[in-house]
């Protein structure tokens, strides 16, 4: 059978174009809150830190104020780095902290090695880890909250672009509350991982990829 040359060329160009579009869509990046915190602390000690920022608020969906003061040695340990805001700080809280070292347990705090932790405020503040989507797309979120203090009692939540999509509580040291979900934010939308005051003490670990 004879196939006209022009028709063959047209079909081939369509196939190549489709292949190029499909190839362009298969892209992915991985963001790890703990790893990125340490990288940012080491290089620039800035907030925001790339796609992440660290702040406090008065509730899951309330406006967030960024922490403005880095503390290189927190809770009596040279391995604990923290962001705080002296204007509202009481007893070192609220804060976002990172244990840059082995597991740390001083009889009060109980931090895993290389763990990020959110400390709700004694004054009632929520501590917030904020991810800002760099591009529109589908993001696979794997996260967990963990009790990082003896006598802990906090509420935890995840807010996607102003809407609460997950909430629970942490009421025991070492307790973990996992979350695994897909979300589809637009570029510039935020995903907030938040820890607020509950029935006990404040420090709650957070793992997010």
Give the arrangement of secondary structure elements.
Layout: H1 5-25, H2 33-43, E1 52-57, E2 65-66, E3 69-71, E4 80-84, E5 95-99, E6 104-105, E7 110-111, E8 116-119, E9 126-132, E10 139-147, E11 154-160, E12 163-170, E13 176-183, E14 190-197, E15 203-208
Antiparallel strand pairs: 1-2, 1-9, 3-4, 4-5, 5-8, 6-7, 8-15, 9-14, 10-13, 10-15, 11-12, 11-14
What are the defining features of this structure?
six-stranded antiparallel β-sheet, 209 residues, alpha+beta, disordered N terminus, seven-stranded antiparallel β-sheet
What does this structure look like?
It is a single chain. The protein is α+β, with helices and mostly antiparallel strands and 209 residues long. Helices cover 15% and strands 39% of the residues. The strands form three sheets. The chain has a seven-stranded antiparallel sheet, with helices on one face. Strands 2-1-9-14-11-12 form a six-stranded antiparallel sheet, with helices on one face. The longest helix has 21 residues, at 5-25. It is globular, with a radius of gyration of 22 Å. The model is unreliable at 1-24 (pLDDT under 50).
